[in-house]
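hiii so um. not sure if this is the right channel but i have a protein structure encoded as C-alpha cells and i wanna go backwards to a sequence. like what aa goes where. can anyone help
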C-alpha cells in the first residue's frame, strides 16, 4: 500500500498504511499532503492530535481502537466529538470531554520511533508543533 513520511518540526518518521483499513486509508490519502499543527491531547494520555473542528469524514468504524500503540495514527471522523487525527507517542486511552472514543487505525510508523518521547515532550512543554504527512516518494 505504500509508505508515508511524517515530520513534526525537525523530527522525521516513516511508516506504512494499514491494510486492514482500506476505506480509511483512501479518505486520508485524499487529504494529502497534510500540513497542520499537532497539539497535545487533553483527555487521552500520551498522544497528540490534529483537530479538524466540525469537519466530518464519511467513515464508519474500520480497524477501530481506543488504545493505539506508540507510533500508530488513528482518525475519529467526527460525531459526538470533533474530527481529529491522533498520534500516540505512549500509552493512550482515546477519549474526549464526552467520554471514550474510537478511531480507525490507518497508519503505523516503523522508522524514527526512538524520537516519539521527544515529540511528546516538545508538544507538551513547547506547545503546538508543525506537522506534515505525505506519501513517500
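sure thing!! here u go:
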Amino acid at each position: 500500500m505504500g509508505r508515508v513520511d511524517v515530520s513534526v518540526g525537525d523530527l522525521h518518521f516513516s511508516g506504512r498504511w494499514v491494510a486492514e483499513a482500506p476505506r480509511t486509508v483512501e479518505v486520508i490519502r485524499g487529504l494529502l499532503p497534510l500540513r497542520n499543527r499537532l497539539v497535545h491531547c487533553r483527555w487521552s494520555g500520551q498522544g497528540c492530535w490534529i483537530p479538524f473542528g466540525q469537519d466530518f469524514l464519511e467513515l464508519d468504524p474500520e480497524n477501530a481502537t481506543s488504545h493505539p500503540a506508540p507510533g500508530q495514527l488513528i482518525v475519529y471522523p467526527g460525531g459526538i466529538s470533533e474530527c481529529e487525527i491522533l498520534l500516540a507517542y505512549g500509552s493512550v486511552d482515546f477519549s474526549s470531554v464526552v467520554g471514550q472514543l474510537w478511531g480507525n487505525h490507518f497508519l503505523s510508523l516503523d522508522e524514527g520511533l526512538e524520537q516519539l518521547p521527544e515529540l511528546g515532550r516538545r508538544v507538551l512543554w513547547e506547545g503546538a508543533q508543525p506537522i506534515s504527512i505525505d506519501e513517500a516518494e
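oh and The chain has a mean pLDDT of 95.
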